[in-house]
Write a sequence for this structure.
């Protein structure tokens, strides 16, 4: 297993994993806009303040990804890297390889001049696993999001 920064040639794999992420997320009931998905992926892959990092199997197939962007905090000029998506195929979840994506994202954030890294959890019955992981890695819970549909 190795990490690789995604290139344009990897877009089909990135799109496929983004759709898998969507299908397991609480947002799966919202009709998907494939053009929007593609636009976001192209933005993340074509911007110096963004990263799409792939976990690639020994057979050369991407089996996971983490993507995010750098922004300044609303009340400070401190930079923060914010995760947009962290996806790992089921058979690789919970492995040291899947955690290497988080390691790579944190390293990129540090090298990009970020003071903070913001990670998300989609909630649900397995959210405790991520809560424990983030806590073990010295993250603190700073806010929770609530969604209301009209």
């Amino acid at each position: 297993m190795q990490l690789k920064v995604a290139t344009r040639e990897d877009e089909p794999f990135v799109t496929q994993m983004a759709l898998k992420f969507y299908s397991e997320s609480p947002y799966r009931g919202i009709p998907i806009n494939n053009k929007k998905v593609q636009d976001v992926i192209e933005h993340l892959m074509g911007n110096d303040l963004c990263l799409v990092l792939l976990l690639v199997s020994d057979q050369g197939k991407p089996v996971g990804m983490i993507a995010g962007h750098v922004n300044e905090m609303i009340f400070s000029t401190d930079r923060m890297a914010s995760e947009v998506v962290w996806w790992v195929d089921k058979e690789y979840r919970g492995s040291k390889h899947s955690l290497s994506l988080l390691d790579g994202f944190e390293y990129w954030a540090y090298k990009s001049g970020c003071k903070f890294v913001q990670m998300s959890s989609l909630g649900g019955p397995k959210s405790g696993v991520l809560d424990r992981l983030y806590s073990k890695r010295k993250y603190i819970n700073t806010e929770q999001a609530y969604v209301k549909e009209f």
